[in-house]
Automatic annotation (TrEMBL):
Entry superkingdom: Eukaryota
PANTHER family linked to this entry: MOLYBDOPTERIN COFACTOR SULFURASE MOSC (PTHR14237), OS03G0765800 PROTEIN (PTHR14237:SF76)
Name of the molecule in the record: Aminotransferase class V domain-containing protein
Species this protein is from: Selaginella moellendorffii
Gene3D superfamilies, per the entry: Type I PLP-dependent aspartate aminotransferase-like (Major domain)
SUPFAM superfamilies membership: PLP-dependent transferases (SSF53383)
Phylogenetic placement of the source organism: Eukaryota, Viridiplantae, Streptophyta, Embryophyta, Tracheophyta
Length: 505
């Protein structure tokens, strides 16, 4: 409660200053900005152990800002050169039926390494193998596709998805459901906050009655957090959906390190869970996905030959490292080597606060950037349009979506922004926002509509209701992200205030 109150006071105090920056040359230097940042968020000083760890283990990131991943972070140097049980493995594909492999795969043919990683992940999610079965997959997308092929959409003929962005694996699931005769629908999100349209979702979950002998309507696919916009959604949708005879697939792949400590799966018990451990354990291949299946839900899956080739895997140990003993780096006794252990040592609360301060500062700083007023416009047009929760939101994820516009409201194409960022040693992502419902429009919507229509490459203004998908630039912070990272992003974006910047580049 105190942390939330301090956060709100810091945000209000900053907004009362009303600072606007119209010239990239007027940005404060890094050192001055950092001092001001610490004055705004003094608790950030409690997380400086992360900066020490980054300097020690992530020196290869010193000249690169990596903001194009979500969830867990990049390899540390030690993960790449040390030969430990969870940092030296390879994936081998498994050809089996999902229900059978889920029930018996962990007890037959599992390597000691796979058992070690399985126990570690189950502990991370705080769930018991007496309640859930766990299957390794090549990726999170493979986990979704595997469930899509195996789920009995022919009996439970509804699929309801809730994503504010395009997901290739979810599109695969939609295709599978339609092939099996299921009715497919999607949750919609309010513009511009991209909050769930709660009234509509409640109606979608309640409206269809269960008839005859069927006890399940279908599958409700629900992410706890948008990996694109950082919007977080209420856990209460899980029991509400189950009370209305839906099975729930929980997508936990966008959650950051140790967020599962607060998940409380003993209270919220989804029928299926998918997650990704990208670049957490080991060297190449850098990660894998997981599909958790509640044991009572296995009966809703069926054996299918198509699912055999989707992407179930097992973990096998790699040959010993090629490094000689003299080449192995020295590290302190007890130093944890993978991302789960690192974040456990650093502390969940510290990590969550650190990411909250960094993403909020970046959002507020980007909002300061405005084009100079011109004779044709009586206002200073914003350079940045944010999609999703603002920097004032305490409970949001460490990712964000945005686009950049020139002084006349014309879009800088997201692909161009990404390319120019790469030239400046900054990695940004791209995503397709979708399922947007344009309601509660702001009074100056006439200034927003053509800006948004240009996101489709159109030079003509059109009705916003017909434009429910558009490309955006994305930023996702990790627990190893630093203040210098977000400052460099701010510094790069501010360059677009210079009318000649793009031409110069």
């Amino acid at each position: 409660a105190n942390a939330r109150k301090e956060f709100v006071q810091a945000i209000v105090g900053r907004e009362e200053l009303g600072v606007v920056i119209c010239d990239p040359e007027r940005l404060p230097p890094l050192e001055a900005a950092y001092v001001d940042f610490l004055r705004m968020f003094p608790r950030f000083a409690e997380t400086l152990a992360v900066d020490d760890m980054r300097a020690r283990e992530y020196a290869h990131l010193r000249h690169r800002v990596c903001c194009d991943y979500s969830g867990f972070g990049l390899f540390s140097h030690l993960q790449r050169v040390c030969n430990s049980p969870s940092s030296s493995f390879r994936l081998a594909y498994v050809s089996a039926n999902l229900p059978t492999h889920a029930l018996y795969g962990s007890s037959t043919g599992s390597s000691s390494l796979e058992s070690h990683v399985r126990r570690k992940i189950m502990d991370h999610f705080r769930i018991s193998d007496t309640d859930y079965c766990m299957v390794f997959t090549a990726s999170k997308g493979s986990a979704v596709k595997l469930l899509a092929e195996s789920y009995r959409f022919d009996l439970h003929q509804c699929l309801l998805t809730s994503y504010d962005h395009h997901s290739q694996s979810i599109e695969w699931m939609i295709g599978c459901a339609r092939e099996k005769g299921a009715k497919v629908s999607s949750v919609r999100f309010r513009w511009p906050s991209l909050r769930i349209c709660s009234r509509e979702l409640r109606k979608q979950l309640v409206e269809k009655k269960v008839s005859g002998r069927r006890t399940v309507k279908g599958l409700f696919v629900f992410p706890l957090q948008s990996r694109v916009t950082g919007a977080r959604y209420s856990y209460q949708w899980i029991p509400f959906a189950q009370e209305n005879h839906w099975q729930v697939l929980l997508d936990a792949s966008a959650l950051g390190p140790r967020d599962m400590d607060a998940l409380g799966l003993s209270v919220f018990r989804p029928d299926f869970i998918v997650s990704s451990f990208y670049k957490v354990f080991g060297a190449d291949p850098s990660g894998f996905g997981c599909l958790f299946i509640k044991r009572s839900a296995i009966k809703c899956l069926h054996n299918t030959t198509r699912a055999r080739s989707v992407g179930m895997v097992k973990l096998l140990s790699c040959p010993s490292s090629q490094l000689g003993e003299e080449e192995r780096p020295e590290f302190p006794p007890g130093l944890e080597r993978d991302a789960l252990d690192q974040t456990k040592v650093l502390g969940m609360i510290n990590i969550k606060n650190r990411l909250r301060y960094l993403i909020s500062w970046l959002l507020l700083s980007l909002a300061k950037l405005r084009h100079p007023a011109s004779s044709s416009h009586g206002f200073k047009a914003p350079l940045v349009q944010i999609y999703g929760p603002s920097g004032r939101k305490y409970d949001r994820g460490a990712s964000m979506a945005f686009n950049l516009y020139d002084w006349d409201g014309l879009l800088f194409q997201p692909t161009l922004v990404q390319r120019l960022a790469d030239r400046n040693s900054i990695s940004l992502g791209l995503a397709q926002i979708k399922n947007v419902k344009f309601v509660d429009l702001v009074p100056d919507f006439q200034n927003i509509s053509p800006r948004k229509s240009n996101a489709f490459g159109s030079s003509q203004s059109s009705s916003p209701e017909s434009q429910q998908e558009f490309l955006v630039v994305t930023i996702a912070l990790s627990y190893v992200s630093s203040f210098e990272d977000v400052y460099r992003v701010w510094e790069f974006v501010a360059k677009f205030l210079d009318a000649d910047f793009v031409n110069k580049e």
